């Protein structure tokens, strides 16, 4: 990737909202060369794409902005995965891969996990609130840790393995979306392979000794067979692909949602004070934060035939970037969309957690983690504020888990 395109991508992904506004105001769709895709920015058009999975395939949903070097690909070839996963599949294949996740994230399963979420959240807040320093960098101390612990518990990981798996998830995102030198790419690829080898071990273990966890749910659903019959190599590759994708989706986006929500509440001080005085408003605050600056800004789709969308003719094989973040700021659906207001009536349902066959299966769990986080912080640290000596908050240059790079707070 040349430096000019890299700089332009950085600019667009750190603050995509000016681009979204121009695209919503334009006739038809807007082609964005930096993304090599047509931008779908209006709420109605986003909904149309999501409701037409036969015409708009998810096969290239996570095509990266960077192509890893041959040396990095060689390292990745030593690992597992590389198979279609739930968000990159369509039709019957998608339904097959999604079914065990729906069962594993049932309302009853999520409810049973809530006591653990509260316990871990309390422990993490204790780790910085009780130190007497009166300040914290929230992303590292809390937002990047709670979701990984929670999703690890759901999957059935040993707590000792969670940091390496979470690290591997972050390295996957960096390898696909951040330009870097060959040596750095190879190092990232090695971390990813380490994560995949850990997940392969869990899949093989659950075949031999099933447990009440999501890893077992995936193994028994996608690779049924007797406990004394080892998984085939193809089954291992498929299971690792599903586990890797689920873990990334489970912790990266929730980390981002925690960070952006706390940031916007503190940036709008009156909203934070209203929340501390009236914690019953927390569920509404969560929905407003998700609408206003959603963690998952956009996913790709590719046309399976020639179609017309918003008056724009798209040949077969055209890539569109479906911008959930742009839909959340569409005045046709949300009056005064650029105003952050936790008292907003959510009459026009936002698309932060998707719609249709690919709607987020983990939305309830994400909301629970954010609810518990806000209840804790407003109760224990009502004087929380953005640090005066670190007033500039820079957003990560990505559209798949938009979040502050760091969030320095004081109280």
Descriptive overview:
InterPro entries: Cyt_P450, Cyt_P450_B, Cyt_P450_CS, Cyt_P450_sf. GO terms for molecular function: heme binding; iron ion binding; monooxygenase activity; oxidoreductase activity, acting on paired donors, with incorporation or reduction of molecular oxygen. It holds the Pfam family p450. Keywords: Heme, Iron, Metal-binding, Monooxygenase, Oxidoreductase. There is one protein chain. Helix content is about 55%, strand content about 10%. It has helices at about 5-15, 15-25, 45-50, 70-75, 90-105, 105-130, 140-145, 145-155, 160-175, 180-210, 215-220, 235-265, 270-275, 280-290, 325, 365-380; strands spanning about 30, 35-40, 55, 135, 300-305, 305-310, 310-315, 320-325, 385, 410. It has one domain: Cytochrome p450, CATH 1.10.630. The termini are far apart. It is an alpha+beta fold. About 45% of the residues are buried.
Overall structural domain count: 1
CATH architecture: Orthogonal Bundle
Element-by-element helix/strand order: HHEEHEHHHEHHHHHHHHEEEEHHEE
CATH class placement: Mainly Alpha
What is the C-alpha radius of gyration, as a whole number of Å? 21 Å
Classified in CATH, the superfamily is Cytochrome P450
Low-confidence stretches: none
Overall helicity: 40-55%
Number of strands: 10
Strand portion: 5-15%
Rough outline: globular
């Amino acid at each position: 990737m040349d430096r000019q395109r890299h700089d332009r991508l950085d600019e667009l992904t750190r603050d995509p909202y000016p681009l979204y506004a121009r695209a919503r105001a334009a006739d038809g769709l807007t082609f964005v060369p930096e993304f090599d895709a047509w931008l779908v920015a209006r709420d109605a058009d986003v909904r149309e794409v999501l409701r037409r999975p036969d015409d708009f395939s998810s096969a290239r949903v996570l095509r990266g902005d960077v192509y890893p070097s041959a040396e990095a690909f060689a390292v990745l070839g030593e690992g597992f995965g590389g198979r279609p996963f739930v968000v990159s599949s369509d039709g019957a294949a998608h339904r097959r891969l999604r079914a065990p996740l729906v069962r594993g994230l049932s309302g009853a399963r999520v409810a049973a996990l809530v006591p653990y979420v509260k316990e871990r959240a309390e422990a993490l807040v204790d780790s910085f609130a009780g130190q007497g320093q009166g300040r914290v960098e929230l992303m590292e101390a809390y937002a990047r840790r709670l979701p990984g612990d929670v999703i690890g518990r759901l999957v059935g990981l040993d707590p000792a393995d969670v940091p390496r798996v979470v690290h591997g998830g972050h390295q996957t995102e960096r390898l696909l979306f951040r330009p870097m030198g060959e040596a750095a790419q190879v190092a990232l690829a090695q971390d990813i392979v380490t994560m995949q080898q850990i997940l392969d071990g869990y899949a093989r273990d659950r075949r031999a000794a099933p447990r009440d966890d999501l890893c077992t749910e995936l193994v028994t659903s996608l690779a049924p067979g007797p406990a004394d019959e080892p998984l085939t190599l193809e089954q291992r590759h498929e299971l690792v692909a599903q586990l890797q994708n689920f873990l990334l989706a489970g912790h990266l986006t929730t980390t981002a949602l925690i960070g952006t929500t706390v940031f916007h509440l503190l940036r709008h001080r009156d909203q934070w004070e209203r929340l501390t005085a009236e914690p019953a408003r927390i569920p509404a605050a969560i929905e407003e934060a998700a609408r206003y600056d959603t963690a998952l800004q956009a996913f790709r789709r590719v046309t399976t035939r020639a179609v017309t969308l918003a008056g724009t003719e798209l040949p077969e094989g055209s890539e569109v970037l479906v911008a959930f973040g742009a839909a959340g700021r569409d005045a046709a659906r949300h009056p005064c969309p650029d105003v952050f207001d936790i008292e907003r009536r959510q009459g026009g349902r936002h698309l932060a957690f998707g719609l249709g066959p690919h709607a987020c299966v983990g939305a309830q769990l994400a909301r629970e983690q954010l609810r518990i986080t806000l209840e804790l912080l407003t109760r224990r640290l009502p004087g929380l504020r953005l640090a005066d000596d670190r007033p500039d908050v820079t957003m990560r240059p990505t559209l798949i888990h938009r979040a502050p790079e760091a969030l320095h707070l004081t109280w």
